[in-house]
Amino acid sequence: MARKGIYNAPWERSFDRILTPLEEFIHRQTTSGVLLMICAVIALVIANSPLQDAYEKLLHVPLGFKVGETDFSLSVHYWINEALMAMFFFIIGLELKRELTVGELSSPRQALLPLMAAVGGMLVPALVYILVNGTGPGFKGWGIPMATDIAFAIGALSLLGSRVPKNLVTFLIALAIVDDLGAVVVIALYYTEDINSAALAYAAIFTLLLAVLNRGGFRGPLPYAMVGICLWAAMLSSGVHATLAGVIVAFMIPMRPKFEPEHFIERVEDSALKMRKSTAVEADIIHNSRFRSLVTALGDGVTLVQAPAQRMEHAMHLPVAYIVIPIFALANAGIPINGEGVSQFLSSSIGLGVLAGLLLGKPLGISGFTWLAIKLGWAVLPPGLGMRHIFGVSLLAGIGFTMSIFIADLGFDGRPEDILMAKTGILLASAIAGFSGYFWLLSCKKQVEKDND
Q1: What is the rounded distance in angstroms from the CA atom of residue 138 to the CA atom of residue 15?
Q2: Alpha carbons 445 and 359: distance in angstroms, whole number
Q3: Which residues contact 221 (CB under 8 A, 6 or more apart)?
Q4: Are 254 and 244 in contact (CB under 8 A)?
Q5: pTM over 0.70
Q6: CA 172, 180, 214, 321 torsion: positive or negative?
Q7: What pLDDT does 442 receive?
Q8: What architecture is domain 21-87+108-189+314-431?
Q9: Rounded to an integer, what distance in angstroms lies between the CA atom of residue 4 and that of residue 37?
Q10: How far apart are CA 121 and CA 176, in angstroms?
Q11: Secondary structure of the chain: what % helix, strand, coil (to 5)?
């Protein structure tokens, strides 16, 4: 129903509900998780249909250009994994920066519990994988079961709605973001091949230029985007994984707004008085240039009272969550499934190592390290949470998908059979982890209701 002074188009209700940043983040991650699942299923169907050959050929079509002696001609699959995923890493960097500045990780006391849980959720799965594979040909995949797919995990948790404590969602977000940081560090330190010193020097120069933009008070996205593209190209040539450029750019985006809230409120009140006077002279806004100029100035102020990093996270989250990640799933989740493949998987130490790491290592690591932190008195569980909730989240953390598939492609580059086994393990483990975590937490709610009767 329209209110006086407000016109709403038939589908326009943008101001009827105001979401908090956390609610908006959860909503987008939930929707992204659903899209991710749909695209993964589509990729699986295509890979097991007569379209499989066309699917593979499309992914290997070369695209690119040359700049001097440098050739940027890469396959479609490579562009998706190297260029589009840099945008994904940019969002990861912004999310991590937000959490470190104003979120669950901003206070050492608050951060310790999800930090300990994340450390356990990275170390134990890696150790489980190594126990299965030893130091043989599959050793390079030890980083695969370390990662948690935040979109899938939050999507599964959000399906439970009010049946789980809100603190549990916050705990999972903090845990998954630290998990992502660990994966980024592993990629940077371990999954980096030969280093091109000259290109790395250029990357350092571009990083320094980003720092200058930050210190110089540049708040618009364009300068950071231009330098970020140059940084990505330099890192692509350097041997260090190019997607890490996204994290570096994210950490260089200013986190402090230009205006403090009180100053902005004073500006709004002053502008409102001037607008009222201008409409008393000319009520028709289209012909009232004074009113329009005041609205423009107020719009600039609205931009400057927000932190650039948070504005960019808000602006980029939609295209990354709804375009980049689904495209990544379409390009990477296509796994042929047949009797021979199942037999091969059951005898593959790589596939079984990934499966064991995600399904056993994650719950043991997260629950065990959380319990240890509490027993040692280093941290306390948030109100309303018990260890049964933590165990449920640790099951959901076994959903590896995006980052795990990404690491599998890095670890077994040039070894398609091993990549296939790793991806099969990831998909199977993610499906089992999602269902088991969901039903475990659902049973927790029913147990609480039974105890209260």
Answers
A1: 53
A2: 22
A3: 308, 312, 315
A4: no
A5: yes
A6: negative
A7: 86
A8: Up-down Bundle (1.20)
A9: 43
A10: 10
A11: 75, 0, 25
pLDDT score for 12: 42
CA 266 to chain centre: 37
Q: What is the identity of the amino acid at 103?
A: G
From residue 156, give the alpha-carbon distance in Å to each of 96, 218, 341, 393: 21, 39, 28, 10
First to last CA, the chain: 42
Is the torsion defined by CA of 234, 238, 240, 242 positive or negative?
positive
**CA–CA dist 79, 208 (Å, integer):** 26
- Length of the chain equals 453
pLDDT at residue number 18: 44
- Name residues whose C-beta falls within 8 Å of residue 408's C-beta, 6 or more positions apart in sequence: 141, 144, 354, 419, 422, 423, 426
| Contacts of 266 by beta carbon, 8 Å cutoff, 6+ apart | none
pLDDT in tens, 78-101: 888 878 888 888 887 887 787 777
- Which residue ranges of the chain lie beneath pLDDT 70? 1-32, 66-72, 103-104, 193-194, 258-259, 263, 285, 299-305, 339-341, 445-453
Return the C-alpha torsion angle 79, 211, 209, 309, nearest 10. Answer: 40
In eight-state DSSP terms, residue 381 is P
Give residue limits of the domains in the chain. Answer: 21-87+108-189+314-431, 261-303
Buried b (16+ CB within 10 A) or exposed e, 330-348: bbbbbbeeeeebeeebeeb
74, β-bridge pairs = 63
Q: Strands 74-75, 70-71: parallel, antiparallel or unpaired by DSSP?
A: unpaired
